[in-house]
Amino acid sequence: MTSIIHSITIDARDSYEIASWWSKVLDLPIHPDDNPGDPECMIELPSGIHYLFINVPENKELKNRLHLDLQPVAHTRDEEVERLVGIGATIFDDQRRPDGTGWVTMRDPEGNEFCVERGPADRAATS
Length: 127
Description:
Blueprint: E1 7-12, H1 15-26, E2 40-44, E3 50-55, E4 68-70, H2 77-86, E5 90-94, E6 104-107, E7 113-116, H3 120-126
């Protein structure tokens, strides 16, 4: 027998607040049973995997051992980076290269790292 990944769990100071932020990033709703003040909140991805945000008492202090890589669907990497900065992300490490390749490592409002890679629009422009 094998296992499947059901949830990717992310520690949070405020699970509802950070789940709301990621809901904007992914354009997916928070689970309808989740409310402000809940100790955990969930976003279900189209694949069936869940992002589960769980309250923990401590702040994030070290580098993530696991992070998400995002790929824009309808626009370029640079447009997505701009959009994410506009809703509260910060740029942590910019690895964009002059030839259009590379990625940007960002942090969500609680400091969790994630990357924004090139999407189809970027690949079409550099092929």
